[in-house]
Amino acid sequence: MKDFLNESTIQLGVCYYPEHWPEEMWEEDFRRIKDMGFLYVRMAEFAWSIFEPIEGTFEFDLFDRAIQLAKKYDLKVIIGTPTATPPAWLTDKYPEVLNVSREGVRYNHGSRRHYNYNSEIYRTFSKRIVLEMVEHYKSNSTVVGWQIDNEINCEMNVFYSNADHDSFRQWVKNKYQTLEGLNDAWGTVFWNQTYTDWKQIYLTRPTVTHSYNPHQLLDEKRFISDSAISFVQMQANIIRSITDKQWVTTNGMFGHLDNHRMTKEVLDFYAYDSYPNFNKVIEDKSMMPLHDRKWSMNLSTVRSFGGNFAIFEQQAGPGGWVNRLEQPTPRPGQLRLWTYQSIAHGADLVLYFRWRTATKGSEIYWHGINDYHNLPNRRITELKQTSEEIHKIGNTIFHSEYISDAAILTDYPNEWDGEEDNWYGHFIKESKEAWFKAFQYHHIPVDFVNITQEMSLETLAKYRILVYPHPAILTETTAHLLTRYVEQGGTIIFGARTGYKDLTGQTYMKAFPGYIKDLVGVTVEEYTLLNGWQENPDVNLLNKQFKTTGFNEVLQPEVENVEVMGTYLNAHYEGKPALTKRSVSTGTAYYYGSVFNYQTASILLEDMEATNYQHLFILTPDIELAVRKKDGVSIYLLLNYSYQSQHIQLKAEMENLLDNQTCSGSITLTGYDVLVLKEK
Amino acid sequence: MKDFLNESTIQLGVCYYPEHWPEEMWEEDFRRIKDMGFLYVRMAEFAWSIFEPIEGTFEFDLFDRAIQLAKKYDLKVIIGTPTATPPAWLTDKYPEVLNVSREGVRYNHGSRRHYNYNSEIYRTFSKRIVLEMVEHYKSNSTVVGWQIDNEINCEMNVFYSNADHDSFRQWVKNKYQTLEGLNDAWGTVFWNQTYTDWKQIYLTRPTVTHSYNPHQLLDEKRFISDSAISFVQMQANIIRSITDKQWVTTNGMFGHLDNHRMTKEVLDFYAYDSYPNFNKVIEDKSMMPLHDRKWSMNLSTVRSFGGNFAIFEQQAGPGGWVNRLEQPTPRPGQLRLWTYQSIAHGADLVLYFRWRTATKGSEIYWHGINDYHNLPNRRITELKQTSEEIHKIGNTIFHSEYISDAAILTDYPNEWDGEEDNWYGHFIKESKEAWFKAFQYHHIPVDFVNITQEMSLETLAKYRILVYPHPAILTETTAHLLTRYVEQGGTIIFGARTGYKDLTGQTYMKAFPGYIKDLVGVTVEEYTLLNGWQENPDVNLLNKQFKTTGFNEVLQPEVENVEVMGTYLNAHYEGKPALTKRSVSTGTAYYYGSVFNYQTASILLEDMEATNYQHLFILTPDIELAVRKKDGVSIYLLLNYSYQSQHIQLKAEMENLLDNQTCSGSITLTGYDVLVLKEK
Amino acid sequence: MKDFLNESTIQLGVCYYPEHWPEEMWEEDFRRIKDMGFLYVRMAEFAWSIFEPIEGTFEFDLFDRAIQLAKKYDLKVIIGTPTATPPAWLTDKYPEVLNVSREGVRYNHGSRRHYNYNSEIYRTFSKRIVLEMVEHYKSNSTVVGWQIDNEINCEMNVFYSNADHDSFRQWVKNKYQTLEGLNDAWGTVFWNQTYTDWKQIYLTRPTVTHSYNPHQLLDEKRFISDSAISFVQMQANIIRSITDKQWVTTNGMFGHLDNHRMTKEVLDFYAYDSYPNFNKVIEDKSMMPLHDRKWSMNLSTVRSFGGNFAIFEQQAGPGGWVNRLEQPTPRPGQLRLWTYQSIAHGADLVLYFRWRTATKGSEIYWHGINDYHNLPNRRITELKQTSEEIHKIGNTIFHSEYISDAAILTDYPNEWDGEEDNWYGHFIKESKEAWFKAFQYHHIPVDFVNITQEMSLETLAKYRILVYPHPAILTETTAHLLTRYVEQGGTIIFGARTGYKDLTGQTYMKAFPGYIKDLVGVTVEEYTLLNGWQENPDVNLLNKQFKTTGFNEVLQPEVENVEVMGTYLNAHYEGKPALTKRSVSTGTAYYYGSVFNYQTASILLEDMEATNYQHLFILTPDIELAVRKKDGVSIYLLLNYSYQSQHIQLKAEMENLLDNQTCSGSITLTGYDVLVLKEK
Fold it and tell me: Does the record bear Phosphoprotein in its keywords (chains A, B, C) (predicted)?
């Protein structure tokens, strides 16, 4: 996060919607917010018809009064532009602003996020409301920043209104210039899909068997991302054209959106909404499930957008809508733990969602800090304590850097192409989670890095280890970059399905793994999808046996110095290579012909000798270790995700920042407890 | 049932559709119907295009001839108005009369119940056909009564045609008078749903994530119920304006319909269609599943509409449509058992569905008494015997009263709001069935009582015990009523989620359980939904241990005389109260912070000392006991739902009405057998 | 297959799409195709916009050049008419040519088979493109035949465009002549569905509960079949009007299509697309699953259309679309095995699909013989060997006859009516597979025979045994035919639900099993569907005990000479007959009152003394035996479907055609190996 915040320590805050409550409650609410030690109040992101109750008529009284009261208690206010929920008068009069399903069913007033990004009418109305609001608040010193819209691409990340079809047609025209170019990129010669006029082109429409041209689908997602970013950009431009004293961001992290580009090109910093209790369903029955710790993965991803960030919605109670997303109550200690989780991963500002549980609407079960009854409860007590702690230690961590020398590579082309491709797409998610789990449970801090065609070696070179699980799409440019990375001393590992596609999603006419064949020194002799039809083959990797899942590639070493580190133990390719390792200059390239799981990732981490801080700590798997550095000093955050106490060892003397005691040797963390240590 | 029937004993009958059969078969059919001992014949409910083959042209010949033959055999005829299935000519010419899905797909000719209640055109056509039919048959002494339409709200109980949207707009205008009132009731300030013009208002329309404004949805169901009742009322008014010699009813029991109000305001009595073989799927793998005995619950609900009732369709064989609802064949004895089940619960008239299995259409597997082949079969034999028995004992039971001093409370606001609310809705159904099961297996007769804002204490005071499982919506009025009920000596028990919502479905800003806090003497300290994410906590209730399900509320006694009867055994609220009991004047109020199951309901019944007739009988769980009283004399119906013989004890001498023998001591009921005893 | 092929031996070939590849690759591809020993090349079936890039403008250059190169390597070319994929310009300008879902969602450009058969516009465009292509290639001696369209009714076999509704209206008018006739046939008197004007008639449209008039649905499928055949006929007529030197066929085997009639009336021979790897999902967890051997059943069905046939797409690698149908890689030996499987069952021409895996579009995972990289692989090697073998033995098998003296009867009315009828439809499929499995594992060659109202006794009389599992629809004509079949010495067996419906799908007013009651000598006393509600009853059949499934009919012998061969062991019909056998003249008629499974079929086969070739072979269950005869000489094909070696015995000396050695006694077939033996 850049210096837009003008803070010197981590600040907390809360989301508060004055329009939901009797005005006579406001002042006591702001007073208690202040009393909690909170500085920031976020508001107004769904309040369009408060600001513009009638088309073209603008009113600011309600929020002016609320902001005035916030000012009285020295609070800072963040205002959301209200474009996520158009007024009833707008959509009723101009239904063409609404989003539509692929099958043609229009989404109507009654929930949220039912508009489309490409309607000219919607853009016109959005511009005007944003302009009016920014003009009104540009000189209000209590208002420190703007959140654009709310949770872009949440709930629905596909769009098929007429405006979207029209805009897509223009988008492909810009991209390909000629129909020949488009026909080539989409491989339309297959199944006679050749386009002979631009007007024949649409976003994917219903087809028999729900199968669509896969190359068109990939472009469709690029287009959706571009549409969303352009909508945010449009608002940011208005704000910046009027004021340079208020920062600009947006919040959330949702599909079909290049958050890296949006953060870099449009935002002052990124804001995330963190709800670790979405882990409510036992989604992971494998060894050592991540549960709420999966949010450390999400937060690491957020960190990759642009460094430190804000949390605009930090879970403050059980969440849920009336008819979906039923979450249990966070246990005592979890709200505090999750606050530290956000901070450990790079949050420099944390706002809880929300001050008080709503008494009406679809989110009456999305609990705030306060209950409906507004009486004391254990969540208030816990967050009051948390706030006091953060005030004590905040400036030591504020603006510090998350330290890691390993990274998991991700990229949008594979993510979006893989969504529709059952022959590799889900392997990406599986392996990413398996690797993150292995890093976590071995206390090896890890970053996520989004690799692009423009990326410099410098960005990668700071990591000792890169994991790039299943990049089916892999260009010559990327292969060249990764080769240079290994040559300068880096270690990289690839999984099955690497390198067989180009950026259109078409396959190369090359031996697998395509352009990185020379780096890893192997080709794929043959391969098979594993789909439950036959028993999954076993593999011996580094003298341990595992069952493979998902996919098997039989590897064929092509150069001398390829070391076979693992072989298949059955199927017709019994005895053939499954895992190889090759030294290239001072670096190393691994290739694994299958999908990773926790166990295979763990033994590979060991073989790669990843940095695990065993010289400083003996930790249990339930503890997450985050290492932050600021002004040359390391801070260690130890987070206990277990309900049970954990017994750990400190091999060096450190300062416990929470109680300012020196500590070393045996230490016990009670359930959900947190340690913040500073090296001495 | 009031005296409309003009009978002095329980009569039987059958549904017979002359238009389905060659006319030469009719007389023999009526002769054999008479020979079965049946008196009533129900017909014509789908015969619109027989009566009006061409728009505006009416013909009565076919049914006149059939009714004439029925008269010849001294049968009484019930005619159905045919509005459940409009003619092809009508819907083809006026497609606006058809119902439409929320997504806009129109339901067309080809099945049944595809019309909407609010089309002015459909109402006009319906009025005319009813008027013509009643005018034609008003003086026909063979025709004794009218069934309006058929199974209102069966198959489909939501309606989204334009007529429905328009009518709903008018309905909310009538209800709320001002947009401000509507916006308040629907909490539209949340997510910017505020309406600024009546024309913006619709029934719920498609939204992203299929989430709708929950308060609007609750009103939508009230509107559907009102629409259905008004359609029935319209027909009843026509009939009553023409004749006072023929009674008026309708049949079935389906969703989104306030049957209590309809019965009271519109009908002479209620008629139910009883198909205990819908238990075909093993829906209940818990301890002691209800299976066909669940229909005792349905029949008890029907009894709550307006006392004794008629059965217009009593199962007479396996049921099923061509492509759904596949039912096995009733076992020998079950058809007789189910007839007694209906009578035990309040049926004063029972018509079997149907005389002969249809040879065409969607219901060729909905078997009648006779098979396609019209030859003798075991069902005919069994029902002939049953008919003889009913003729023997019918007048002893006819118009008698079902005796119970316990009741389960239900209400429409919670039923309808709970349909969409995953945070309590399904608990109502679960707990209702658990309690009914506990009452059943302990031989404690129980009523259902529909509680309303207008209810008098008198109605409740006749019960010693009330069970009100999870009334999330609970007003101050209801709390006051229930408090007076307890004060005058009643016992009441509530379950989790009681009392946190008002009649709009919005939450109170009050400590739970809201307005009944003072009655039960506890508040809810905290709570959590149980959704499988963590192991469900155990509870110790009255010294027995159970696993809780669904929801946990941690109770906090607020007054002195609250007795803690159960505590949680684990989770972070280990040791805290789960069940409390409080004496109020001469009454008692229990509160249980979780969802009921068979076991918890059973031990609570014991603690409440419910009337279980152990002074008269020692029964096995498979036996249902029903107690009827007439002219001060008690009649006991004992029904064996098991395939196996049951050995029971009579502690007093009684008269077996079926064989007129005196009996006492050990008695064996064979599989599916029935005893009808009269106290001596 | 008639003599259209003008071959004297089995030929192989491959599908090759020149438009998908750079022209500089073509010649090398054709050279290598020739080098594989292939003679036939199939092309062009999706190339409409290559031939007609602009409406009315035709171009043949690309394919002319490709065919010229094929000719250079003495290859024969099969051209597909391209009507399965209309050009974008066509559907964009005339969207009425597109198919539409029942709910009204139009299927658009972007996949394939999205047109409807009944659009006059589409027929006009189709006629023109076919005419132009045939005119162009009629004298090209390299072009030997035409494939019409591609995989008729694949992907989607229901059609609800306006053109289809209109055409259906005309179709029923032709069929019934009067509305009275239609109303009778569809049983519209039930639920007031009576039609009073032809314009009220549509194909089934959305109704509540997704239930439709079952008799209308049956006609709907007849109509779809007729529409498809008429579309193929239209193209065949054009081709035949222009040339008599090129044969006409189409390919695939899909639903709602009377392939028997189409083959007989329209085609020169039938072509099938055989993908045994569709067995990818373990769909059959019963004893001895069929897996890829199920394709022997499919091929036997194909053989019933018109004798020997062609394979136009023989699996050549793993198959799959991007988002569906994920298949594992065929194991070494399976491609060869499946080639022999096709030949064993009657293929006289086999084309592999496809030469090289596509690099673009939805089918990039439908692997060809060559991989994307075009380098050597094991599939090429295996098929090269296979090709050499076929060249060696091909003419011995070519045009030989598949020998069997047992047949399973099928028919379209029951298949189509049963699709929607849960009271018997799925029993047909279950029992058919159970019987086929029993025949297979006991090495008894079996045919499928499609029984029609016009069938002669002669066709049936050549079989000693007929199995007709659950013909609910069974006419007096058929009953008469089958009775004569038994009287002349045949053995027949029926299963439950036989004979209770007529050709409209309405039930007879007769005792079950209707018109065959006199043949089998039993009636059905009562029956029940088994749906899991109660434990399925056991049965004792020929002194072995089994659990029954699906349905139970209690049989009542009606004549003296009915032998009860099996009885129910529990339920209320314990001890009553379940299986009967009756001698009629020299023949025998069995009736089994339940659904068949592998075990019951196996013991019945034993009782019927089916021909099992035990005088020649002792085989393991994993071996399929096919017997071919030509010029009085028998050829035995033994196919090992197991991964493991099989040890078998030859009791006679035979010639191994693959190595020309004489063999007898103990022989071992390795995994997936094949033996082709000729009697000496």
Answer: no
Residue B566's closest CA among B587, B544, B584? B544
Q: CATH assignment of A3-158+227-400, given 3.40.50.300, 3.50.20.20, 3.20.20.80, 3.40.50.1370? A: 3.20.20.80
pLDDT, position C5: 86
A511 contact residues in C (CB cutoff 8 A): 373, 375
Q: What is the mean predicted confidence (pLDDT) over C482-511?
A: 98
Q: What is the ipTM of this complex?
A: 0.96
User: What is the rounded CA–CA span in Å between residue B379 and residue C495?
Assistant: 24
pLDDT digits (tens, 9 = 90+) for B563-582: 999 999 999 999 999 999 99
Q: For residue range B228-268, what is the model confidence (pLDDT) as tens digits?
A: 999 999 999 999 999 999 999 999 999 999 999 999 999 99
Indicate the pLDDT class of residue A2, thresholds 50, 70 and 90: low
Percentage of residues in chain C having pLDDT higher than 70 = 98
Alpha carbon of A114: minimum distance to chain B alpha carbons (Å): 6
Contacts of C421 in chain B (CB under 8 A): 322-323
Q: Tell me the per-residue pLDDT of C267-278, one tens digit each, with 9 for 90 and over.
A: 999 999 999 988
Pick from B186, B189, B216, B427 the residue to mutate for testing the A interface (most A CBs within 10 Å).
B189
- DSSP class of residue C277? G
Active site residues per annotation of A: 151, 313
| Residue partners of C160: CB distance under 8 A and separation at least 6 | C99, C100, C101, C102, C104, C203, C205
Which of chain C's residues have a Cβ under 8 Å away from the Cβ of B254? Answer: none
* Average confidence score pLDDT of chain B: 96
Average pLDDT in the A192-198 region? Answer: 98
Q: Is the pLDDT of residue C284 over 80?
A: no
Closest CA to A492 of A456, A449, A452, A526: A449
CB A576 within 8 A of CB A552: no
Please confirm, yes or no, whether C313 is among the known catalytic residues. Answer: yes
Nearest-neighbour CA in chain A from B195: distance (Å): 6
| Candidate from C508, C511, C526 with C-beta closest to B378 | C526
- Other CB atoms within a 10 A radius of the CB of residue C264 amount to 12
Give the Cβ contact number of residue B615 at 10 Å: 8
> pLDDT for C322-376, tens place per residue?
999 999 999 999 999 999 999 999 999 999 999 999 999 999 999 999 999 999 9
**Chains B, C: CB contacts under 8 A, how many?**
172
The architecture (CATH level 2) of C3-157+247-399 comes to: Alpha-Beta Barrel (3.20)
Burial class of residue B575 in the structure, from the number of CB atoms within 10 Å of its CB (0-12 exposed, 13-18 middle, 19+ buried): exposed
Span A572-595, average pLDDT? 98
CA angle A82, A84, A87 (to 5 degrees): 70
Measure CB to CB from residue C114 to each of A186, A207, A506 and give the nearest one.
A207
Class of domain A406-607: alpha beta
Both tokens of B131, joined, read 């008027």
pLDDT at A532: 77
DSSP reduced 3-state for C3: helix
Out of A46, A105, A364, closest to residue B206 by CB: A105
Give dist(CA A435, CA A604) in Å, integer. 10
Q: Which amino acid is at B589?
A: A
CATH code assigned to A617-679: 2.60.40.1180
Chains in contact with chain A (at least 3 beta-carbon pairs closer than 8 A): B, C
Mean pLDDT lowest among A275-289, A417-431, A505-519, C466-480 = A275-289
Q: Which of C45, C220, C313, C430 is catalytic?
A: C313
Domain ranges of chain C: 3-157+247-399, 406-607, 617-679
Is the domain B3-158+231-400 a CATH 3.30.460.10 member? no
Is the Cβ pair B372, C507 closer than 8 Å? yes
State the pTM of this model.
0.97
